[in-house]
Amino acid sequence: MDRAEKIGIYASGGLHAAVILWAIVGDMWFARTPTEPVQMTQVSVISDAEFQAMQAAAPSAGGTPDAVQQTAPEAMDAPSQDDAPPEVTPEPPQPSAPEPQPAAPEPEPAPEPQPDMSDLTDPPEPAEVVEVPPEMMPPVIEPQDTQTPEFSPRPVAKPARRVAPEPAPTPEPDTQVAAIAEPEARPEESVEPPPEPEETPEPTAPEEAGTEIETEASEEVAEAKTSAPPASPRPRTKPARPAPAPEPAKPAPPAPDRDDSREQTQTASDAPKPAAPTPAPPAPEVSSAVDDALAQALGGGGDASGGTGAAPSGPPITRGEKEALIVDVKRCWNVGALSSEALRTTVTLAVDMNQNATPIVSSIRMIDSSGGSQAAANQAFEAGRRAIVRCGSDGFPLPAEKYGQWQTIEIVFNPENMRMR
Amino acid sequence: MLRMLMAMTAAMSFMAAPAAMAQDGPLRIEITDGVIEPLPYALPTFVAETGDASQMAQDIASVVRSDLNGTGLFREIPASAHIQRFSSFGTSVNYSDWTAINAQALIVGAVSVSGGQAVVKFRLYDVFSGQEMGEGQQLVANPQSWRRLAHKVADTIYSRITGEGGYFDSRVAFVNETGPKDARQKRIAIMDYDGANVNYLTDSSTIVLAPRFSPDGNRVLYTTFETGFPRIKMLNVSNVTSQLLPETPGTMTFAPRFSPDGQSILYSMEQGGNTDLYKMGINGGNPQRLTNSPAIETGPSFSPDGSKIVFESDRSGTQQLYIMGANGGEPTRISFGEGRYSTPVWSPRGDMIAFTKQHAGRFHIGVMRTDGSEERLLTASFLDEGPTWSPNGRVIMFTRETPGAQGGASLWSVDISGRNLKQVNTPGAASDVSWSPLLP
Predict the structure, then answer these.
(1) Contact assignment for B376 to A421 by CB distance below 8 Å
(2) What angle in degrees, to the nearest 10, is found between the helix axes of A3-30 and A153-163?
(3) Are residues A374 and A347 part of one domain?
(4) Is the same domain home to A168 and A241?
């Protein structure tokens, strides 16, 4: 599984989990009370002593609306309770608020609070009050403008915080994974070779096979592109093994690589540098063999004596780019005219490439063959060479900036799947 | 200890690393799938270098085209698409003109007639490589043999491109059939592989069956009923004379086949109600009995090296294929599929055996490895039988018969890949075909 896919899966999983968690737990914390529009008014808090002082200072306790005075203290204790709203009347609190301060010096003249309070506690008929406010509240006082600001910040704000930051991104990753996969991959390739109209110059014949193979190619290429480049540049750092230092002569190859050639020479010049310090570490006395093993393993074999000995430089070829090259070559590899013995012969061809991704025809050579006679190998070689020349005439789909990686290509033509069965 | 552990781990990873290390070399890819399609080629009409050679030049080019196209491996790009024209054999090739029309091979030739001799010369070019494939060649023959000249040119081209020998300059012997189905008249005939130059070697006075070419192509063995019983006759193709092979009184002989060296004959002989395989020198002598069982053994065919024999036998209860040594011995059964197997023929390459298979009311021509593996059925019809190999082992010719009173036998050919199934041109109905070796 590629890195991109992992990230997508993790993101999707995390967001889904968040949504599920919100669905389960969010109700507990942010349950919506089936509240009707509630109007809040500013209330000042006064102590019991102040209140009593006020009562005492009041001219008369008799005829004023009892319910108002009774509910006011309750509302102060628990402002969020449903009982509070009914006291819509703005009058009592506001006048009472400024009064407490001047009332402070009056504790003395108010010695008889008790009798008045008894009056207050008397009226057990709040029923009348309850009937009225529910009807009055919503329509009259709060036209819709004031509702939103007057919603207590809590119920609105909390759900908003939770939902807003996270749920918004969640839907996007899901759709991105499916929809963006192709577009993302295409730009990579289309960017590389600006002149892409590959097959237009070919007039007649290739169309038969071209149509079939193109569809395969597009599928395979699409597949390949969804997968992120697996190659990690790490192995290229060669910590040990100074021995292969004499290799810097390698950048000799003919074509100068614009920036790549600089990179090559740089890496070549860098290579000897790490080589210099390496002689120092061998200090450990006995286990030189162990050191060698470590150095070879960690250094990727040091000299990397693969085929030509010239380690490519620059960013590695991605799997998608490799697949695109394979698709391009195989559509020209015609084994229809090969003998059955040649169809049992696997040949490996090497070809040097121009920077415009066309093969240097004269450089095509057979470097290995197996499974058949020399005559069969020669026929298989001819078929492979024709494939390279034909499909390479317009340039292979290779990234120009990675020329250092593909200036020489080895192609194994294995007709295993093409044999008669 | 830790250091040792690290060393071991490092060593192991180093040993397991080659695949990754290989990526440090040049970019390497593996192609395991390609396309199978006819190779497009261009063949401008051959240049007539003498005034009286123009018709022959066209005819020869036409036969070469027919040969190549008939294989199913090549496809000619019509002349109307050609950009470059050749006015002389020495005209240099402008490769870009041919790559532009996607010609992968280009054949340029010239014909001249002088001194009673026809001369054909040609060159073959690999267009995309921009070089000649092999060297130019020149052939000389009697003008009346211009078709053979053309076949030789085609064989050379075929061989250079495919890497295997050609088969165009070859002949087939067959039984020509005339008359209604219930009263057929049969004659031994030979013709070019493509149906040209038919010659009848016998008359229709008696029934003749199963002609078989000798390895040199000069003689034909066949079975005749001229004595009232099946007898083997050997016919000299050049002078059309024939002779009965020696026989044991009271026996019937049939299904003859030459040995690869042409010095002995393998055949079946029925004696006392039992049929076994025998071998005999072409000049007579005592027949050597190769099998001895109460079953019917027939249809023998030598391996190309002459060391083994494949034949059919019903010793297991149904017709199956067996292999044994050229001098007899315990046979080994090689066919185990459903149905009956018959008329086995060893490939000239030695790697395969062609056969007739009857199963579920259908007949098939098939091939299998000499050990019986990789059986493949190439055809299926009301009646297909009697396969014979082309000289290069690439094509099989056989007899196909259609049902009904109006049905008749005809010759067909098919590539061993199962592609390019087509009928062979014959004058009337034909059966029992045998392919000759490549002519000298």
Answers:
(1) yes
(2) 170
(3) yes
(4) no
Q: Which of A231, A337, A384 is opposite residue B161, by nearest beta carbon?
A: A337
Q: Provide the β-strand partners of residue B173.
A: B190, B434
Residue A293 lies in a domain: yes
State the complex-level ipTM: 0.73
Quick one: which of B135, B79, B143, B65 has its CA closest to B111?
Answer: B143
SS3 A343: helix
Q: Which of B20, B27, B40 sits opposite A405 (nearest CB)?
A: B27
> For chains A and B, what is the number of CB pairs under 8 angstroms?
204
Q: Give the range of the structural domain holding residue A327, as residue numbers without chain letter.
A: 319-418
Q: Which residues on B lie below 8 Å from A342 (Cβ)?
A: 162-164
Question: Measured between beta carbons, which residues in chain B are less than 8 angstroms from residue A412?
Answer: 28-31
DSSP A337: T
Over residues A90-119, the pLDDT tens digits come to: 444 443 444 444 444 444 544 444 444 444
User: For testing the chain B interface, which of A200, A238, A286, A382 should be mutated: the one with the most B CBs within 10 Å?
Assistant: A382
Question: What does pTM read for this prediction?
Answer: 0.62
What is the sign of the dihedral through the CA atoms of B332, B334, B337 and B342?
A: negative
pLDDT tens-digit map of A125-178: 444 444 444 444 444 444 444 344 444 445 444 444 444 444 455 555 555 555
Q: Of B29, B163, B164, which is closest to A325 when you measure between CB atoms? A: B29
Domains of chain B in start order, with CATH, are: 39-162 (3.40.50.10070), 171-435 (2.120.10.30)
Identify whether residues A9 and A75 lie together within a single domain. Answer: no
